[in-house]
Amino acid sequence: MKGKHAQSNAKKKSNVKSGKKRRANIEELEKIKKFDMVKNTIEEKEKIQKQDDDFDMLGIYGVKKRQEEKKINSQKRQSGNSTISKSSNMQRKNVKKETKNKKANSKLLTNIILLILIVIFLYSGYQVFLWLKSDAEMAKLEEGLFSEVLIEEDNEDGEKTESIDFEKLQKINPDVFAWIKIDNTNINYPILQGSTDEYYLRKDINGKYNIAGSIFVDATTSKEFSDDNTVIYGHNMKNGKMFADLLKIYNGDLGNNVEIKIFTKEGLYKYKVISTYVVEPNLSLVEKNFSEETKQEYINNAIEKSNIKFEDQTSEIESNLITLITCDKINTSRVVVHCVKIDETE
């Protein structure tokens, strides 16, 4: 019995020790838990404090940073806007300047064109005035002086004769030395010789300016028609005056047997047309004097070039020539008419 009781006490003692040990362990665990809880609480507080501190620092710093960034951005925008504004203003100024320059240039161009048109109008009007004035003066000469000096009479045989009152003509102008007439044309004019080759190019028998000029010869031409080739010039007027009717010879309107009359103080010379053609104005139109060989060659070439085959056209010509020259209708070429002497009466 004692043995069982002793075992029971020993077992009890062992259980007590075991219980104490468990309680000690539990207490230790609780202490650890409390420590951990305190630690965690401290750490949590520190974390919260740190977050508060961080939030506060971030807020202040962020506001300042944002303010600085905003200020910088504002300055950039202002600078950009200022640059854009300046650029825009410059562009507007440039556009206005270009527009102003264009308007000025356009106005200048318009004024120049207008001035040119005015000059052309005035020049054209002046030319028309000169032409009308010249035409009126020429008509007055033809109806007055020219009709008075051309004398038509019947001879003893009842034939009609013509002569020129050179005494009356030379009282008006001593440069008159001959008269040319072609039947069935308007060519019926005095022939003059000036101090220069072109003196009577734009002057009438009175020495006044006239766009139609006069019928004339070069300053070095013999007034006796003793040159191998006497060249006589005249304008081709649009109203059919002066040498305009030479085109009738060139076109064949007068046929192939055309006679030219040259009156001088010594008498009447009659010529027959042997050739007519057109040449460029820059070419050498005529020659005045020839050797025996060159004269025949010149006549042969003239006949070959002729636009019309005239009656009794022959190269065997010994008499002197006269050559009549005028411009064509558009003044780009020269119409040439060659004639040979066939008769002479004193």
Layout: helices, strands, pairs:
Blueprint: H1 2-149, E1 150-154, E2 160-164, H2 166-172, E3 176-181, E4 188-193, E5 215-217, E6 229-233, H3 246-250, E7 259-263, E8 268-279, H4 292-305, E9 321-327, E10 334-345
Parallel strand pairs: 4-5, 6-9
Antiparallel strand pairs: 1-2, 3-4, 3-7, 5-6, 7-8, 8-10, 9-10
Structure in words:
With 346 residues, the chain is of the alpha+beta class. The protein has a domain of 181 residues: Sortase, Chain: A. 50% of the residues lie in helices and 19% in strands. It has four helices and ten strands. An eight-stranded mixed barrel has the order 3-4-5-6-9-10-8-7. Strands 1-2 form a two-stranded antiparallel sheet. The termini are far apart. The model has no long low-confidence stretch (mean pLDDT 79).
